[in-house]
Structure formats: structure tokens, C-alpha cells
Amino acid sequence: MAAEMSGGDLSRLRQLNALAVIKALQGQDSLTLTEVAKRTGLSRASTEDVVRELLQKGWVTEAGATAGGVGRPARRYRFRAEAGRVLGVDIGGHKIRAVVADLDGTVLQSARVPVAPEMGRLERLEAVDRAVTECLEGAGLTGGEIWASGVGTTGLVDGAGRVLLSEALPEWTGVDLAAHVRRLAPAPVLVENDSKLAALAECWRGVARYAKDMVFLLAGLRTGAGLVIDGKLHRGFANASGEIGALPVLGWIRAQEHLSAANGEAGGEAGDVFAAARGGDKAALAAVRRYVKDLALGASALVLTLDPQMVVVGGGFSRSADVLIEPLKRELDRWCIRTPEVRMSALGDEAVVLGAVRLALDDVEDRVLDGRSPLVSHL
Amino acid sequence: MAAEMSGGDLSRLRQLNALAVIKALQGQDSLTLTEVAKRTGLSRASTEDVVRELLQKGWVTEAGATAGGVGRPARRYRFRAEAGRVLGVDIGGHKIRAVVADLDGTVLQSARVPVAPEMGRLERLEAVDRAVTECLEGAGLTGGEIWASGVGTTGLVDGAGRVLLSEALPEWTGVDLAAHVRRLAPAPVLVENDSKLAALAECWRGVARYAKDMVFLLAGLRTGAGLVIDGKLHRGFANASGEIGALPVLGWIRAQEHLSAANGEAGGEAGDVFAAARGGDKAALAAVRRYVKDLALGASALVLTLDPQMVVVGGGFSRSADVLIEPLKRELDRWCIRTPEVRMSALGDEAVVLGAVRLALDDVEDRVLDGRSPLVSHL
């Protein structure tokens, strides 16, 4: 509550100012001190202090100079996104994705290892090892050079990085993913549910960048949700938010069955049904309609609960936006008091792994703030 | 983002410190400077500065002295809760409640005017006038002495204090409650949905004081919900959060009908059914069971969406906790991944009007913070 400037507060303030300068420089080629001061709202003197400190610590470097109209050219500074590396991993039913990103969140290297939904725990963890190892090798890094790792998985995850409950993957309940990934890269490992990470990614790099409250719908072989409330990922008291699928009347449990039923005994992928619907096939159109009705029922419960600014539809089926989005809007209109803006994800398959990168970067930034920056040990 | 201390920041900091001292003193008889410093975490010197300023402005007054062991007795200070007055109004189907409270939120005077659900707009607004006038007169105040008013009503409310949609009360859609109450007390008027205000009250003075995330269920002739997320009332993009009742499959629309059906053609109140159930009447027990099943279905959708720490049940039916709470917990257990703590409201009938007082006090405190304190014009 108290906002007086004690010694601790002052050092906190310096860290907040440092983070403000870093955020201003991130994603820019380079800025002058004047430009940094303008973007952060800091005074010229404070800006100089902070930039000097960040130069010393290795977060910022000089980047040539701009020739001014008169007088001597202004020095330019840039964020050293290359100062550190984070790892992002997406563990899915059909694939394992691993990426290495710099401190701007730019993906430098990625690897993908196909897996099958019915694989057991050991086989899936071996595939994780292969994806991470391949990705690190491709980036020319050892695990010790990673500052933080983010991991996305299906199922409920506890605060310590363990899978509490997974119904989609066999033998997945109880697996300690944080410990497993820490063997490969001995930095902090943050583990989170895949729908929640996709929500995070949509607010960071996706179509929900300007939304404060957002519902992310994972529409694919599984149906799930991730919530961003007041600009923050809403996890819930036991990290079990967004689990509306547990309520049978809301239709998510059976939603996907309409698509597999349309494929009949011959089998085939859900994508085939969307393709047939696109071609005007009546049975396929009816199956998609039934699927959307069930998807929209659960989505309406989320929307009526939260009244979000935006709903973002992602997951494998978001590629079929052309046959999904209009019927989905119509169904939401039917149930919701106010239908929010409905957007299809532009991140597609990348959403979860990008969310994992964001989670890792959040951890790195927390450590800038509390003074436990990995730079101390890496410079 | 920037946290540097500009002139504006310093004055903001002084205001935050002032509010910290006020919060420390509120609800206490009196404190010494040492005690204030300890509770706020401010230094002795800053505490003295802030208390001196608050004395000058009339928020704080001296309150005798404590005889110390040695040396001269320490001066004591207390918050002048009597420095200002706020008004709270609850506009319901069956009653209008108005209260006057001091700046501690202590209710000093209250009035209650019975109304009927079928009354039209003018008749209901006249009842509001009577309740407010009676309450002000009882407190010996004129409308001009009120610093802020909070108003609770059924229905959806916009940001300007107008009822956007009310299905429960006839001719209530479109009424400009802020303008109406401002005629009676020309200070700022904040209008909010009644379930949302009850949620606010439970987190302030009720059973949810220690819950960061909380779902309030209004269980009465209507069923509604209010959400507190991360310690703040969650309103939604268009103030339409918690409206899960709009989804027929979630049962809230029909929930209450089970109770009226149990009373049969003879009529009677829902309370009669609860009383009969308490006495072991089989038909009444079955009706209560059906009611609880429907209440729990919608509540489960809220819980599965948010994974809150606590569910608080309020509204008229919360008086029948003994026959409601155990069946409700069992039904929640059936659907929820993690059943949160379920508590009955201890505020009962007072919850909405107390939430209205809290809303008014929030406005007063905002004006302490931004320097537009009503004290300036009232001292």
C-alpha cells in the first residue's frame, strides 16, 4: 500500500525504469537517447543513467550514430536481443515442436518431431528430447546457454511443472515435465497448459494484441480454452480455468464426434469433412453445422461469464476459417447477450510454442526486475 | 511503464501515501505515529509529513494521547470518518433500501420502502425518492452533504448509470438512474448491477474477504452472478459479465419454477418450500433438489470457466442455507474439476446496499488520489 521511496523501493524503481527502456528498445533497430526518453516518458537525465547501466550489464549496445542537421551526430543504442536465448516446447498429440528464440522473441531455430496420440510416456518424452536436442544443435547452442524454457502440454498442470491430469495422452498424468526439460537445459522451466499458452501468444503476437479481455478457443481434435483477463493470463486458483469442456450439456465432449461420424467407417481426417463442406457436400455441411453448434454452446458459456472484448479461434481447425467462422458467429449471436468480435488465429500451429517462448521471456524479465538477471552469470 | 519520479509522480506518490495512512487508520479507534508507520511501512519522517497534511485537510484529527512508560505521552490520531457521508441505494423487485454511511462505511441511517415486482417505472422511482428522502432526513442531512452515491439495480447497466436491459422489472429498460438519484443528492452517482454489488460487498465485509477470485451466486426469485477476479470486480467489456442465465441449457431460467410448482395453485412463497423441506416433506425436498440441480449447472459453468477460490451464495434463498448448501456442494462436485469452497453469505439482505456504499467510497477514494477531494469544498 505504501508508496514512499525506501532504499528497496528506489532499487525497484531503477529496475522498472530499466525494463521500460528495454521494452522501448525491443523490436526496434536502434534509438537515440532522445527517442528512448520520449517513448518511456523518462527525463533525459534518468534515461542516460539507465542506458549507462544497461550498457554496463550487457543488455544494450551502441549501434552507430545518426548524423544530425547541426552539431555532432546523436549516438544510437539497441537492445542486445542476442544477449540471451530461451527455449520453447510444444508437446502435442501429433507433434513435438521446439524453438530457440532471442530476447526479442524472434525464433532463430525450430525442430519438429512427429508423434502419435497413442504413444506412451517414455516414447513421447524421448521425442521431446530429440526435438530439443535437434533444435539446440541447429542453433549451435548447448543446454547451458538457455536462460529459461517454456513448455506447453495438453492437460492440467500444477505450479511446479507437473501434469496433474491428462485425458488426451496415455500415461501422461503425473509426468514431471519441468524436471525432464531441466535435464536438457538447466535453467528455470515453466510449464503451462497448451490452450493457455495459445491465448498468451494471441495477445502477444496474434490478433488479440489490443484486447484486454479475451477468450481463446482451441478448435481441433480436442476443444479447449484459454482466458486473458485484464491483460493477464487467468490461470485460476488451481490452474484449472477454462475447463468448460467438463460440463456435458455444453457440448465440447461430443463436438468432434460429428466430424468423425461424417467420415464414416472409412475413417479420414477432420480436414476432409471441412474440404467436403467447402465443396458443397450436404452431409459434410450438416456435420460441420453440428460441430459448430456444440463448439458455440461452450463458447457462449465462456462469453456470457466474462463478456470479453474478443474471441480468438485457433487450433488445427482454424485453417478452415472459411467454413467455420460465419456459422460460429451466428450461433454465438443466438445465445450471447453481446457477441464479441470473433477472429481466427493468424498464428495457427505456432501459437502454443510462441506462448511457451513468451512464458520463458516473462521469467527472464522477472529476473531483470528482481536483480537476478542471468546476464550476471553469462557475461 | 516508466517509473521515474517526475513532479506529477511525486504528487501521485504523496496521494498514495495519504491513502495508505487513511486505510491504516480506517476502522481503528486511533493510532500513534509509530503505529501508523508500522502498518503502512512508511518511514517515521514520511508518516509525520502525511499525517500533518491530512490534519490540515481535515481527514485526520488528534484523539488524545497514550501515556508511555517514560517520557512524554505519544499523540494519537484517528481518521475522521465523520468528515463525509455517502449514500447507498438498492432497487429491488420487492423493496427499495437506502442507507447513509460515513467514510469508514459504517451505516448511520437506513430506510426501507416496500414495492411490488409489477410496479411501473414512475411508481418505482417515486419509491426510490421516498426511501432516499426518509434516509437523509433521518440522518439529519441534505442531499448536498452527500459526497457520492452508489446505486444497485437488477438488469444490465451501462457506464453512464442507465439501465440497458431489465427483464425482471417492467418499464425499467432505459431508465437513467444516475440522473434520477443526482436530483436527490447532486454528487457523483455510480450505478451497478445488483449481483455485482453483492459480490463487491462479500469481498469487502462478507465471507470472501480473503479470496482473490470469487463467484457470487444470487439465489432468490431471480438467479444471477457477480465475479471478483484478481481482487477486482470483473465487469466485462460492456458490463455484461456473469450473465450465464441467458443460456437455457444451464438451467437458471427454469430453476425457480421448481419451487413455485411445489407450492401448486394455492401459491405461497419459495420460503414455504424450504420450510417444508426442512420439515421432511417429500415433495418439497424433491422440488429443492430440482432447484439446486439447476442452480448448480450454471454455477458449474462459472466455476469451470474461472476456477475461483470461493463460491458465495447470497440472495433471499441464502437464509435457507441448511437445506441448500450440502446438496449444492454435491452437485458442484459432480460437474467441477475442482469444487471451490462454498460459503453462504452472512450479509443476506444487506449485501447489495453495502456494495453500493463500497462503490460510492471507491469514488471518494479515487478523488483523494487525484486531488479532487470533496473536502476542499466541504471544509
Automatic annotation (TrEMBL), chains A, B:
Which Pfam families does the record match to this protein?
HTH_IclR, ROK
Q: What is this protein called?
A: ROK family transcriptional regulator
| Superkingdom to which the source organism belongs | Bacteria
* SUPFAM superfamilies, sorted: Actin-like ATPase domain (SSF53067), Winged helix' DNA-binding domain (SSF46785)
Ranked from the top, the taxonomy reads: Bacteria, Bacillati, Actinomycetota, Actinomycetes, Streptosporangiales
Q: Which ranges carry the HTH iclR-type domain? A: 17-61
Task: Please give the family membership noted in the entry.
Answer: Belongs to the ROK (NagC/XylR) family.
Extract the signal peptide range.
Answer: none
